[in-house]
Amino acid sequence: MLARPPVPGPYSTKFVDLVGKDLVRISARSDYALRAMVFLAGYAPGDLVKGERIASETGVPIKFLEAILRALRVAGLVTTQRGADGGYGLNREPTEISAHDVLLAVDSALTIEPDPRQLAAWSALWRELHESTTNSLRQVTVAALAERAATRS
Question: Could you read off the pLDDT of 79-106 as tens digits, one per residue?
Answer without folding.
Answer: 999 988 899 999 999 999 999 999 999 9
